[in-house]
Amino acid sequence: MKIYPLLFLLMSCSVAFAQKDSTLLRKDTTAKQLELVTISSSRKNVEMKNGKLIYNVEKSAAAAGSTAFDLLRRTPGVKVDQDENLLLKGSAAANVMIDGKMNYLSAQQLASLLKGMTSDQISRIEVITAPSAQYDASGNSGIINIVTRKSNKPGYALNLSSGITLGHYVLNNQNITGNIRVKRFNFFGNLGYSYRRSYREENSRQLFDTKAGTPQILDRIGFNPFRSQYYSYRLGTDVYLNKKQQIGFVYTGTRDDWTKDAVYTTYTRSTKEELLSAKDSKVYSKEPYYNNAYNLNYKYSIDSIGKMLTADADYISYRNNSDGHLGSGTSLLNYHQPSHIDIRSLKTDLVWPLGKWNLKTGLKYSSVKIDNNFNYDSLQNNSLVQVAALSDHFIYKEQISAAYFSASKQWEHTTLDAGLRLEHTLSEGNSVKTASLNKSVYTDLFPSLALTQQLSTNHKLDFSLSRRIGRPGYRDLNPARYFTDQSSYYQGNPGLLAEKAWVLSAAYTLMDKYIASLSFNRADQFISSSINSDPATGTLIRSVANFSHKDRFEAQVIVPVEIGTFWSISTSATLSYTRYPLVQLQGFKNVDKMAIELYASQTFRLPGKTSLELLTRYTSADLNGVYMARYYFSMDGGIKKTLLKDKLDVKFAFADLFHTGWYWGYSLSNTANFSYKNIPDSRRFSFGLSYRLGGKLSGNKPRQTDEQKRL
Q: Which segment of the chain is annotated as a signal peptide (predicted)?
């Protein structure tokens, strides 16, 4: 464990003397060289801008062959846990958007979507930890926005890219992104294909007492491979009706032919490690996903001083037919779980400058319906018979109505942004066969306040306070069982309540680049992972639950450094302290943990339009719901060379060079004595080509945030 922080420090130790060294370099630099320094540092791979942490993917040499999921794993402040949940500031209650649009997907479905999205489609990733009132109140820890490439400049722009990745398997991806702007029409689109294949070694140990009171050990050893052919397509148009008005339509679709064929062996041992029994099981699953999203948008620029009216109408459809079986010896359990999700939303926003004040207001309505009819059949006397205890029909409906108002003003040295958002939620979860109905109706106010004080040219203070909400994920409300093997499954919790939080932060900025910040997050009815075991069989039951509250304190320092004209380093260090009460078999136990995260991104600008990038990350052990997640270390990098008058990019990249990106930990509650160690297929080497025709595709400017990622 100790070698990784030491290795991290060795890779980034130059930060300590870089400022002094670069100052000496500047004293002897000519005006022309100074101009080159300014140009080369205008857009760093990682930067802070307007309260957002931005990861400029299109600038990154290490992004070659990576998926959106890989890129998020490398983004400062974002973590991934053993179940592939994305964590921001230690919480899974983060909104994930693509071009300002939310995705109603479970953590597993979102991970699959992001794994099919290649880096060639992405311009940048934005992390917003203090959203204003115009954003949905959902997301206690903030917003992650993935901005794709698009251009609206006259003429045409086309990007062609292809790549191959070598790891345990051989992967490949191809992508075409482009647009044509002709007079009043702008057409844009994307077509992508990705062949993905990977695996995860899953090892766990569980100690439980049998009915007779005898302690036993269950050791589970699994090999979980999956294969996917992922197709993505996007087509849209903007019509400029006149100088003030435009209307647009966007269609986005994905298809994922996903299968897995996992094998597990469960060993039952005595506490003296004597082998009592061994049982093999196989899990086969075929899950094709068909996702379609339609957006109609309108923009009216009322005048030249910033008055503007926008409107959006969205319809999103997700279809998934999950079929498979779980077999162990002569027993066989088949399952069929079709799932349909329909989302409709309407929203309008008005920006109205009034004197020195900038006023914003808006309305929004969204409706969601989820229909999941899950059936299990067991093999009895050579015939499949429905297992009534496992089968059900779950229907979930949710309606959210919202209105907000915000006002901002800038004085000579002070900027104020204050807002208030009202949200009314009506939800209903219905388990048809068990006649279990859960209704929830609530109305909440979500104030936000941000204050910036420019102390002098080089010194600035920022302060923010906001109230947020984290609604339960749709899958987490679903009582359906999802089996890992014959002795382990996940089951949703229909009784989950929404968590609500106050978020407070303060930051000091020096010279517009060095940042030191403090933040505090108090979440009530905090939602996170839980775990139990069947006392008779030792079957492991994973779920989610409400914890009474959670407190999290964070201190972060961001230090970017330029060393001459060829070397730039961006480092960050985050110290956190988390505490909350944990449910025990009897009563509660207070748990707390101090953790540190170190991140360094180094870019070397070499001759011949060549750049070299090295990313290093270390995270110490930290709390994650019922688990203590152990340390994590990874090193990624890449080299990029630009040829043919800046038209061709040749990239070579590696991911998790030392194959240390494991997910391992243990439970802190005595409801289940459980530990795990998952080793993914994360060490890979990629080669990619990207060729540009016409103009340049840059980040699409998103409209305002839509719905939360929740299903």
A: 1-18
